[in-house]
Amino acid sequence: MQVLKTLALPVLAASLIMTGCANRKPVTDGSNIGTTNLTPGTSVSTDGLSEDAAINAQNLAGASAKGVTEENKAFLAKRVVHFGYDSSELSNVDYQTLQAHAQFLRANANSKIALTGHTDERGTREYNMALGERRAKAVQSYLITSGVNANQLEAVSYGKESPINLGHGEAAWKENRRVELNYEAVPPLLK
């Protein structure tokens, strides 16, 4: 009987603690239930959304038209820059796209962007991770020299791990040699 009491007490204590944690609710005054604050005076309803969906809704609702002009809308809509084989050199066409994004980022200090570098399937995993990083850093460097705050940018390499085209020829490889510009906060409002 003593052994049963010795074993039962810790199990009972643990289940009471776990039950209390499971029933704990965040403290709220009720004024912000189902909303996510964006900027003073604005909010978007996030009732019933997963955490990721709520963040996406917040980003879309927080989109900014500041820094968006009729002249740069087409360039802001472009979120990918491409590279030549085994290269991290930016092309002349990409400078216009990156300049439009730099203008937007300078006008929107709360905007953040992830620059994801990618390669084609040729070469080792290690080599392609390094090449993808050089590509992402080339875009990052251009944006910083164009006046963008470095804290708004994150450079990441996926190497050959996330191809956009699964083919095995030059056309597929050309599409996969890229840096994607992914807005994580306050994307451009292009409407």
From TrEMBL:
It is a lipid-anchor. Keywords: Cell cycle, Cell division, Cell outer membrane, Lipoprotein, Membrane, Palmitate, Signal. InterPro entries: Bact_OuterMem_StrucFunc, OMP_bac, OmpA-like, OMPA-like_CS, OmpA-like_sf, Pal, Pal_lipo_C. One of its GO terms (biological process) is cell division. One of its GO terms (cellular component) is cell outer membrane. It is found in: Cell outer membrane. Its main location: membrane. Residues 1-24 form the signal peptide. Residues 70-187 form the OmpA-like domain. Belongs to the Pal lipoprotein family. HAMAP family: Pal. Part of the Tol-Pal system, which plays a role in outer membrane invagination during cell division and is important for maintaining outer membrane integrity. NCBIfam families: Pal_lipo. The Tol-Pal system is composed of five core proteins: the inner membrane proteins TolA, TolQ and TolR, the periplasmic protein TolB and the outer membrane protein Pal. They form a network linking the inner and outer membranes and the peptidoglycan layer. This is Peptidoglycan-associated lipoprotein.
